[in-house]
Amino acid sequence: QVQLVQSGAEVKKPGSSVKVSCKASGGSFSDDSINWVRQAPGQGLEWMGGILPVFGSPTYAQRFQGRLTITTDESTSTAYMELRSLTSDDTAVYFCVRDQPTKLKNYFDAWGQGTLVTVSS
Amino acid sequence: QSALTQPASVSGSPGQSITISCTGTSSDVGNFNLVSWYQQYPGKTPKLLIYDATKRPSGVSNRFSGSKSGNTASLTISGLQTEDEADYYCCSHAGRRTYVFGTGTKVTVL
């Protein structure tokens, strides 16, 4: 049973960057895809992007292109999400989630606990 | 990549059945049988209810069922219970390893 454990809450200034980590255990990290989903306060879920380590290159939702970078460190089974040029609209809970496209499992069956990122001056 | 359209709220009495729709386009819902549904309680992590439009993971109640026709997927909750009061989200694969979520539906048990 895969478990995803995320880094702790962050408070950032507008214009700065945030980097959130997601450590996986109990699964096959290189074969799994890690995605990032965010939820602003009182709002819905939004898929931001994902990466399949065995393929290497990430994919991003169009609205985050140029501002979002998703990477992995296979040696520690950890994925990272870095979002730059933060504004108050980026205040949200950020979840890492797993799918397994190499096994034709295109759905999110494991979720991290969420990381609250607050952007405030 | 516009969000899939869901009704903002749906309500029903205990024991009734309700259906939540999820409308996309021929680029996402209509092009793939890769629609999933998630249940989320306030302050909690979403839980997978349905995958591949109609399949239920082990451990999920058979009161939850999914269907899809054209660009619209649906989640039906039968025998509505008070514990079903939550937010529900659909999600569709949209090609090239991308996904799009629905706008979310708040279910109220009257």
Word description of this protein:
The complex is a heterodimer of chains A (121) and B (110). Chain A has 121 residues and is mainly β. In chain A, 0% of the residues lie in helices and 53% in strands. Chain A has strands at 3-6, 10-12, 18-25, 33-39, 45-51, 59-60, 68-73, 78-83, 92-100, 105-111, 115-119. Chain A is globular and about 45 Å long. The mean pLDDT of chain A is 95. Chain B has 110 residues and is mostly beta strands. Helices cover 0% and strands 44% of the residues of chain B. Chain B has no helices and 9 strands. Chain B has strands spanning 9-12, 18-23, 35-40, 47-50, 64-69, 72-77, 86-93, 99-101, 105-109. In chain B, the strands form 2 sheets. In chain B, strands 1, 3, 4, 7, 8 and 9 form a 6-stranded mixed β-sheet that branches. A 3-stranded antiparallel β-sheet of chain B has the order 2-6-5, with no helix packed on it. In chain B, a hairpin with a 6-residue loop joins strand 3 and strand 4 (47-50). Chain B is globular, with a radius of gyration of 13 Å. Chain B starts with 8 loop residues before the first strand and ends with a strand. The mean pLDDT of chain B is 97. At the A-B interface, strand 4, strand 5 and strand 10 of A face strand 3, strand 7 and strand 8 of B.
Produce a short descriptive summary.
The complex is a heterodimer of chains A (121) and B (110). Chain A is mostly beta strands and 121 residues long.
Set down the secondary structure blueprint.
The complex is a heterodimer of chains A (121) and B (110).
Chain A: E1 3-6, E2 10-12, E3 18-25, E4 33-39, E5 45-51, E6 59-60, E7 68-73, E8 78-83, E9 92-100, E10 105-111, E11 115-119
Parallel strand pairs in A: 2-11
Antiparallel strand pairs in A: 1-3, 3-8, 4-5, 4-9, 5-6, 7-8, 9-10, 9-11
Chain B: E1 9-12, E2 18-23, E3 35-40, E4 47-50, E5 64-69, E6 72-77, E7 86-93, E8 99-101, E9 105-109
Parallel strand pairs in B: 1-9
Antiparallel strand pairs in B: 2-6, 3-4, 3-7, 5-6, 7-8, 7-9
